[in-house]
Amino acid sequence: xxxxxxxxxxxxxxxxxxxxxxxxxxxxxxxxxxxxxxxxxxxxxxxxxxxxxxxxxxxxxxxxxxxxxxxxxxxxxxxxxxxxxxxxxxxxxxxxxxxxxxxxxxxxxxxxxxxxxxx
Length: 119
Description:
Helix content: under 10%
Shape: globular
Number of strands: 11
Order of helices and strands: EEEEEEEEEEE
Oligomer: single chain
Distance between the termini: 40 Å
Low-confidence stretches: none
């Protein structure tokens, strides 16, 4: 089992920035690919970003490309999502995912952290 704990969410004004963190524990060898997803009210959960074990391959949704950056610190078993130039459309619960079968399919999920962007 892998446990994931997200942090860093909150309320920010449009144009602002936030950095989300996701700390993994347990069977961390299963966390080779890690990702972030989000779910806005009344919408399906959607892919945001993903990163491979070494950190040299990343994927982003078109909606966040150029504004969000995913990174990881394997020594700390932690993955980050730096979010800049936030807009109200980025408001959602953000979920960390681990144990990726691919960049888009995962076995383990965190509880989520709320990000609210005010206009």
